[in-house]
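User: quick one
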Amino acid sequence: MVRWLVGAIGLSVVAAHALAAGPVEIGIGYLGYAGVKSKLSLVEQPSENDGIAGARLAIEDNNTTGRFLNQRFTLEEVRLKEGEDVANAAVTLASRNGFIIADLPAEALLKAADALRGRETVLFNAASIDDRLREQDCRSNVIHVAPTRSMLADALAQYLVWKQWKRWMLVVGSHDQDKLYAEALRRAAARFGAKIVQERTFEDTGGARRTDSGVTQIQRQMPVLTQQAPAYDILVAADESEVFASYLPYRTWDPRPVAGSAGLVPTSWDAAQDQWGAIQMQNRFVKLNSRRMTALDMQAWTAVRMIGEATSRTNSGDPKSVFDFLKRPDFSVAAFKGQRLTLRDWNLQLRQPILLVDGRMVVSVSPQEGFLHQFSELDTLGIDRPETKCKLH
Amino acid sequence: MRRRCLLSGMAAWLATGLSAATPASAFIAYVSNEKSNTVSVIDTDKWTVTKTIKVGQRPRGIEFTRDGKFVLVAVGDDDKIEVIDAASQQVVDSLPSGPDPELFTQDAAGKILYVANENDNTVTIIDLEKRVRVGDIQVGVEPEGMAISPDSKILINTSETTNMAHFIDTATRQIVANVLVDARPRFAEFKPDGSELWVSSEIGGTVSVIDPVKRVVTGKITFNIPGLRREAIQPVGIGITKDGKTAFIALGPANRIAVVDGTSHAVTKYLLVGQRVWHMAFTPDQKYLLVTNGVSNDVSVIDVAAQKVIKTIQVGELPWGITIAQQ
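Assistant: Done. Structure below.
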């Protein structure tokens, strides 16, 4: 009680001081590459502002709250061109902002993190799902808001096992990230009791994604790719490179559902998610950005909201106070996933339920019922504390 | 009171020509079914659903007018509040709320209605007699919980993403204080004597007890149910007895109602009810508490004195809010 009283007095003193001095400015940077990666489906073609659109909405949300607390949030966007030095850009951005939302691939993220070592600025990984960033290559100045590849694979595996679709045929793309996804899926199958009855590879031989008579060929190619398979329940595709997976549904030799990179897809967010109050945020997003919200938008929104949550609770825009608050065991953030999201203290990964979506509807949300854990059921998704290779310094 | 019930019972009998007149001691509960787009009418004497009223899309917040003549139900996806005539049990009119109304509260005189509009960060003020919108108040992100102090001077609105209880002066319609609470504040309730304000935080998993004079959090009620993970405990609806001695708090997907000592704020008991328990209402004699169970599509009846669940009543799909006549 006494402690609380002192805290309250402290807070009111700070608030009064802040009022006198004008709003506390909280600068957030957004660091990403210019241009977008093409998708097989035209309706999934990412927008130029994919990601930052979510950050912008969260800035608005934070500023609505900030009006009552005398805090003002700003967003500074930096887009790198191919070959531009990410370390330099991060340092420049950090000179003006205490927080940086990183929309970067793993290698670039590590360069940025290492360039900012010893500085106060905190990085939020909003885009990269690579497990190594939370394992052997973890960094103490990076909070991971994006889920990991293993979390996504585990979320899918739990549902398929719950459905009793335990015999998988795995088709893997020929690029590195496809192989990493396949590895996560193999691990998930072994953990949750599914069996990969056969594995096939789809070689990327190049070529255009959009052609005028593509369907005719694809309709002949996909049955051939999937014929003469041993008995299986579901085809699981690992194709992060967007080369073939979206061609598989309805075209397999045997009539089987598809999951993984097409069909039933595990993701942190989807435009169809409307449970747990999400409809309000989806509406706000569409109103602000004139398009629907993607997983990357949501990851950036969540990162900026985590900062806002910490600044409102600590009544401070100081990066160190915010970072310390985020690392406290009682920190949690609400992000329309039906439960609080918290940070894994061993690698600063955000725990989160994973949606399973089919492009039009949310089919299910993992963790599934019955997958138990002694600490948090969310830790049944991804690499858990006892297995971690991360040592935070 | 008995006499008035008898009279209204007669009126109902005369109006509808039904031979099975309502017994004198019965109250009428109205339950909004979020998914079915209906309101279930429950006779608290027989504990049965006597009528299902078709309403607009996504009915949630539901409350009797102070005079007991009408039931107001917020139909969020139709951006309005519908007015059900308690005598004919039919929708007779609608009120112009802002977009996506969810919860609302009335002043003590029953003349002014304050509505939380989730979609545009405002509280809308409606004149209940003229049935027109007379003003808006800008609040935090996703306004939800609404409560009014017993003297009607202070309006409370909670905003779910801003995580605050906003104190609004009803005379000037200005925000006079903001109190930070835990994540996703859903519901606010004053103790009947106005000495405390309780605010539930669904995602934070706590109920904040606020001193309405000093406007600071003076205590937090937490819940610990053995065998249940922390994330499943999501407090939403709050009901406090007239004497302020006992409170009931709905814990959402924990499928339980926590019984809380109104003075010490200690949890004394957990009552197992249906799935995803949401909101609640006492019968006017305070003998029973009815709670809505969203996922199991039913209403649990709790004997308040015995602190026991005595009955379950099947209603529509995803029952959300509930109100019981005050006469």
